[in-house]
């Protein structure tokens, strides 16, 4: 009976969390990042959007930093600061680790706007600079109803500021990051990998017998390698090496102490597969073909820097 | 027998992982990192205060009480250590929050006073300082939000079922979060408004 109490507590907590997340306030949803200029109000003509997008794309090619523009009717019930940090966190504009993104948010019916600045640009596009761009350049044009002109002039000044900032040169090609964790796991020098292979090998050999067990272990590792590297040849090699190690690990250790067995087994794995790993250096070239047509955030992060204004 | 021991050791290690030991470590570090960001931004605000006081002093020398209040509140903030150990001591956390809240309300009193000095409000240096203060207040909000979320993750993590046993064994306690009382003390953020028609500012707390 007393053992059931923590279980019930856990269930209640899960339930409470479910209620909390589902009953969250109905905030304005952040629209999908369809391009560098996202206009939900139909204020800008399609030629305006194309022209600004081209300039922003050119900036990214030259300097690597990303700027996006978002025009929404309203951000109620949130303030524009809350909405724009949410949009920035969702879109992840700017390069990862460099965080050189900036976002210009306009809430047309609220008559408010904000420049949200990524960490990496806070030194150049400071709060003061952002406020001046808003007050001196954008707001006067917005007041006279010239939205496309205000946005274009604001972008011009933002680009000017970023151009004066030394940033790391843009990488010619984007390597895929999604498999980073799996790749590090597959690195044969990773001690957890060694342990994992050895443990899986021991278990499956114990359960299934030596032959089938070693084949299964090799197959599992081979499948993981295939998924991460996208190369059947290297995956097959890794699988075969693991199979062989698992198959022979027992007989190798039969004459030895229990303690030494793990050493022998792991040594065999790292030497046997490091060649396969270095051969796998080709994965980046065979990897994702970077498409420039679809725009997506590079993983930059924001901390609430920037300035707001109203007209 | 040897085989059995190997399997047992494997299972023990895997179950330690499954019982959330690693997750607790990850969440714990995340809380610490987010706390450092909160402190970092509060520090940034403290650093702005002397410049702000000086620029106001030039235009509104007779507001000695208000200026002195801000200076004293800032000195109090500066005297409190905000190391990550604060997170394991609810009383120290409370003290830190209270000091920051006092600085917030002192700043808001100062900003109410500045409404009476048009020349000050149109001063370029003062406006730059105001936009920096405004940006810093926003950064504090963002940092606090992230801290709140990471504490939620951490606390849910150590209170849910298999992990709570691990947390109990290794002595991980719940972390304090920004409570409603603290929110009330701090929610009087400095109001920055340069409109021609100044909105009625809320009466300063206390």
Can you offer a commentary on this structure?
- The complex is a heterodimer of chains A (311) and B (206).
- With 311 residues, chain A is an alpha/beta fold.
- Chain A has eleven helices and five strands.
- Chain A has two domains: 37-173, Diaminopimelate Epimerase, Chain A, domain 1; 180-281, no CATH class.
- The N and C termini of chain A lie far apart (65 Å).
- Chain B is mostly helical and 206 residues long.
- Chain B has a domain at 28-148 and 180-186: de novo design (two linked rop proteins).
- The chains are: A alpha/beta (311), B mainly alpha (206).
- Chains A and B meet through α1, α4, α7 and β5 of A and α1, α6 and α7 of B.
List keywords for this structure.
heterodimer; A: 311 residues; alpha/beta; Diaminopimelate Epimerase, Chain A, domain 1; 2 domains; 5-stranded mixed sheet; 11 helices; elongated; B: 206 residues; mainly alpha; de novo design (two linked rop proteins); 8 helices; 74% helix
Helix content of chain B: over 70%
The total of helices of chain A stands at: 11
Biggest pleated-sheet summary of chain A: 5 strands, mixed
- Per CATH, the architecture of the largest domain in chain A is Roll
Uncertain stretches of 5 or more adjacent residues of chain A: 174-178, 255-292
Mean pLDDT of chain A: 76
What's the helix count of chain B? 8
| Shape field of chain A | elongated
Low-confidence stretches of chain B: none
Instruction: Write the H/E string of chain A, N to C.
Output: HEHEHEEHHHHHHHHE
Measured distance between first and last alpha carbons of chain B = 73 Å
Could you name the CATH class of the domain at 28-148 and 180-186 in chain B? Mainly Alpha
Overall outline of chain B: elongated
């Amino acid at each position: 009976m007393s053992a059931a109490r923590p279980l019930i507590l856990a269930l209640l907590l899960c339930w409470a969390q479910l209620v909390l997340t589902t009953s969250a306030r109905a905030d304005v949803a952040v629209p999908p990042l369809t391009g560098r200029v996202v206009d939900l109000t139909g204020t800008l003509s399609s030629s305006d959007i194309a022209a600004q997008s081209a300039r922003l794309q050119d900036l990214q090619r030259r300097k690597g930093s990303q700027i996006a523009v978002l025009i929404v009717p309203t951000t109620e019930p949130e303030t524009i600061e809350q909405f724009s940090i949410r949009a920035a966190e969702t879109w992840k504009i700017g390069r990862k680790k460099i965080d050189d993104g900036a976002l210009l948010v306009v809430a047309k019916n609220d008559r408010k706007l904000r420049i949200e600045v990524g960490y990496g640009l806070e030194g150049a596009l400071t709060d003061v600079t952002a406020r001046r761009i808003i007050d001196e350049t954008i707001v006067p044009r917005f007041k006279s109803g010239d939205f496309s002109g205000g946005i274009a002039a604001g972008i011009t000044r933002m680009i000017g500021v970023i151009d004066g900032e030394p940033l790391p040169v843009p990488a010619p090609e984007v390597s895929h990051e999604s498999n980073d964790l799996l790749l590090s796991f597959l690195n044969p020098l990773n001690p957890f990998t060694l342990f994992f292979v050895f443990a899986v090998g021991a278990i499956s050999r114990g359960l299934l017998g030596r032959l089938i067990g070693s084949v299964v272990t090799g197959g599992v590792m081979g499948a993981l390698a295939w998924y991460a590297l996208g190369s059947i040849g290297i995956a097959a090699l890794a699988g075969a090496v693991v199979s062989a190690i698992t198959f022979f690990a027992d007989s190798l250790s039969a004459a030895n102490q229990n303690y030494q067995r793990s050493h022998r087994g792991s040594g065999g794995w790292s030497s046997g597969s490091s060649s396969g790993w270095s051969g796998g250096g080709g994965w980046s070239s065979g990897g994702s073909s970077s498409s420039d047509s679809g725009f997506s955030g590079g993983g930059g992060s924001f901390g609430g820097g920037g300035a707001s204004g109203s007209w | 027998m040897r085989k059995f021991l190997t399997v047992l050791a494997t299972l023990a290690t895997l179950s330690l992982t499954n019982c959330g030991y690693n997750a607790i470590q990850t969440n714990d570090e995340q809380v610490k990192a987010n706390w450092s960001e909160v402190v970092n931004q509060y520090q940034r605000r403290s650093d702005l205060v002397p410049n702000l006081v000086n620029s106001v002093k030039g235009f509104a020398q007779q507001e000695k009480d208000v200026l002195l209040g801000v200076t004293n509140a800032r000195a109090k903030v500066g005297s409190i250590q905000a190391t990550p150990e604060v997170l394991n001591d609810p009383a120290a956390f409370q003290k830190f929050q209270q000091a920051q809240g006092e600085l917030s309300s002192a700043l808001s009193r100062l900003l109410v006073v500045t409404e009476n000095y048009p020349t000050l409000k149109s001063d370029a240096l003062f406006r730059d300082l105001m936009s920096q203060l405004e940006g810093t207040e926003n950064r504090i909000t963002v940092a606090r939000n992230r801290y709140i979320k990471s504490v939620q993750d951490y606390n849910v993590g150590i209170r849910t079922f298999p992990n709570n046993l691990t947390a109990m064994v290794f002595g991980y306690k719940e972390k304090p979060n920004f409570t409603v009382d603290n929110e009330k003390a701090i929610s009087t953020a400095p109001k920055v408004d340069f409109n021609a028609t100044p909105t009625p500012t809320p009466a300063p707390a206390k």
